Amino acid sequence: MSTDLDYLQTVLPAPSARLAGKVVLVSGGGSSGPGWSIGKACCVTLARHGASVCVLDANLDAARDALCAVKALGAQGIALQADVADAAAMERAVQAVMSAYGRIDILQANAGIGKVGGPEDIALADWERIQKVNVDSLLIASRLILPIMSKQGHGSIITVSSVAGMRYLGYPHLAYNVTKAAIIHFARMIAQQYAEQGIRANTVVPGLIDTPRVRNTVAKMFSADDFEQAKAARDRQVPMGRMGTPWEVANAVAFLASDEAAYITGTELVVDGGLIGKYV
Ligand SMILES: NC(=O)c1ccc[n+]([C@@H]2O[C@H](COP(=O)([O-])OP(=O)(O)OC[C@H]3O[C@@H](n4cnc5c(N)ncnc54)[C@H](O)[C@@H]3O)[C@@H](O)[C@H]2O)c1
What is residue 109's three-state secondary structure? Predict the structure, then answer.
C-alpha cells in the first residue's frame, strides 16, 4: 500500500517545490497498522513538496515502510529508530540526521499515545508514560534541535495536539487530554522565546481522524458487526459528517512548515471539520 503510486496520486496535492532543499524530521512517522497514520501521510506530503524526510519511529519497520513511500515519490530520506521519550536514543537520531544532511529545517513532533481513563482509574505508571511520550519528548527534541535551528537562523517546529487538548470529547481520557493541552502551550512558549532566532513553532490540532490506530481502538471496543456502526457514530459526531483523513492534517502541516507561513508563529491550526465549534 505504501508504494501504491496510483493511490497516492488520488490523495496528494500536485507536486511542488515549496519545501525544496529542506530537511524535515518527523517523529512517529510510521503507522501503528496497515494504512496511513497522520505521521506517515505527513512524511509523504512533505516529500511531495520537495523535502528530504527523516522518518523517526519507535518501530523501525514502520519507519522503513513510510520511507519506502517517500522514495517511491522520488524524494530522499532516512529511517531512524528511537523512542521519543529516550533522550540518548533521540540524541543518536539527531546526530544521524546531521551526519546525513548537516541541517534540520523542520521538526514535526507527531508521536503521541493515550489511554482511556479518568483520575480515579488511570494507573500512575500509564499517566507517567503518557506524559513522557507526549510532553517530555518535546523538551528532549527541542534541546537537541533548537541549537541547530538557531545556528541556521531559521526553523519551523510543528507539534501535534488534538481537539481533546481543548475540549472534553464525551469520555474520560485524562492523561491524553492534559498532555495535548500542554503541547499547545509548549509550542507557544518556544515561539515566543525563539522568534528572534528565526524559529517558528506552531501546533496542528486534529479532530477525529481516520487512522489505523483509531480503527484498531474502535475494533477492540466493538464486535465486527458493530464496527461499522461505531465508525458511523464517530462520523456523525463531526459537523461535516465524517472523520478527517490523515492527508487533510498533512496539508495543514505542510503549510505551517513552508515559507508561506513565514509570519505565523505561536498559534494553532485546527483541522477538525468544525468539531470544536460544537463543544463551546
Ligand atoms: N487519529 C486521530 O484521530 C488523532 C486525532 C488528534 C490527534 N492525533 C495525534 O496525531 C498523532 C498521530 O496519531 P495517529 O493516530 O496518526 O498515529 P499512530 O498511533 O498510528 O502512531 C504513529 C506512529 O507513532 C509511533 N510511536 C508511538 N509511540 C512512539 C514513541 N514513544 N517514540 C517514537 N514513535 C512512537 C508508532 O510506532 C506509530 O508508527 C498522535 O500524536 C495523536 O495523538 C490523532
Answer: strand
- The 10s digit of each residue's pLDDT in 94-126 is 999 999 999 999 999 999 999 999 999 999 999
pLDDT (tens digit per residue) in 24-61: 999 999 999 999 999 999 999 999 999 999 999 999 99
Residue 251 Cβ contacting ligand 1 at under 6 Å: no
How far the first Cα of the chain sits from its last, in Å, is: 39
The number of the ligand 1 atom at minimal distance from the alpha carbon of 246 is: 16
- Supply the range of the domain harboring residue 187: 5-208+245-270
Q: Report whether residue 212 contacts ligand 1, using a CB cutoff of 6 Å.
A: yes
Alpha-carbon torsion (20, 23, 27, 31), positive or negative: positive
Give the DSSP per-residue string, 217-247: HHHHHS-HHHHHHHHHHHHHHSTTSSPBPHH
Which amino acid does the sequence have at 167?
Answer: R
- Quick check: 23 and 54 in contact, CB under 8 A? yes
176 classed as catalytic: yes
Give yes or no: residues 129 and 237 share one domain.
Answer: no
Q: Are residues 138 and 224 in the same domain?
A: no
